[in-house]
Amino acid sequence: MTQLFKKSHNKKIRHKVAIFDIDGTIFRSSLLIELTETLIREKIFPQKTHNIYDKAYKKWHERKGSYEEYIGAVVNAFQQNIKGVKHKDFIKIAKNVIVAHHNKVYRYTRDLVKKLQNKNYYLLAISNSPQEIVKEFCKTLGFNKIYGRIYEVGKNKRFTGLILYNDLISDKAKVVKRVIKKEGLILGGSIGVGDTESDIAFLKMVKTPICFNPNKNLYNYARGHDWKIVVERKDIIYNI
Q1: For residues 169 and 175, what is the distance between their CA atoms, to the nearest angstrom?
Q2: Helix (H/G/I), strand (E/B), else coil: 154
Q3: What is the pTM of this model?
């Protein structure tokens, strides 16, 4: 864990904070999608799990449906099948996914994370993917704190199917407020990076909001509020 506070004249330095959404913002896909696909491939989830989101994927792939509908269907597939899965099997799969995909990142946000880390920012990651895989992914990038969706594990070391603290992780602004208070951080000079309208709440809190590869709703909001918009396509980074 990165040293958060350095003492100088017996006073704590209050660090600036940088908040990142992960899926589609740093990771060039969704951790949950890669995880679910691998759980199916390794026969932890049944093959028919694909049926829950195949139609939504096809519509999105053909640009007839939204990505939000597709990822929502994947979330449903995951939640319908996670109950009863051994936690140790899940952890093994999560680690394997990150080994295979840890370099599947955007250049812009990867380099921004390194730049802010060198400037001694406190790096906070917030994702709606499961906590275990978010933690594995963010370890490779040097984040100070990560928040992911927590699925309950019972006394038998298997998932119960219940989601814990759902009201917290569903509100990224609430997460930011919690971490700032707990860690004694400051919002002066703060930076936030997100890609969908669900990130607006925390982006409104920071000094410099960055909308990276935004969907239409976030793009429209950003244009109306003069927020920075960055698009990375192939090997070119555009500032809009």
Answers
A1: 7
A2: coil
A3: 0.89
